User: What shape does this take?
Amino acid sequence: MKISDIISEDLIIDELKGGTKIEVLQEFSRLLYEKGIVPDKEGLTKILVSRESLGSTGIGDGVAIPHGKLKGIKELILAFGRSKKGVDFDSLDGGAAHLFFLLLAPEDAPGEHLKALARISRLMKNGELRDRLMRCGGGEEIKMAITKEEGGQAS
Assistant: This one.
């Protein structure tokens, strides 16, 4: 599985406006609603906030992977957002999150969901890639940076 195969340029937010965890989750929910991917933006926000209440998805090193399972979708959905100023996401290392990968999975696909989470986590261990993603000019460059990085790794 490659992240570059499931991330779509039209689901990349170059600069998140939200300054809090809830605002960032609402911003992603609004995007997915406006793109016609989810029928209920408030329902999606509730799912994401509920998942966060179990433990932060801020994994450290400036990265957060908010995620959840959503009824009615047929395949993994991945959105990306970047906050140059950073957002307090209750990350494990106490630092602000700058790079956000929002992952939604069908309710009946736990294996794919876990594989995608692990893949994102592995990719984001690369400090050079994190730096590159912070410098990218926009959605196309962000997707290209991820694609290029994955080109050198086994799926």
Summary: Residues 3-151 form a domain with the Mannitol-specific EII; Chain A fold (CATH 3.40.930.10).
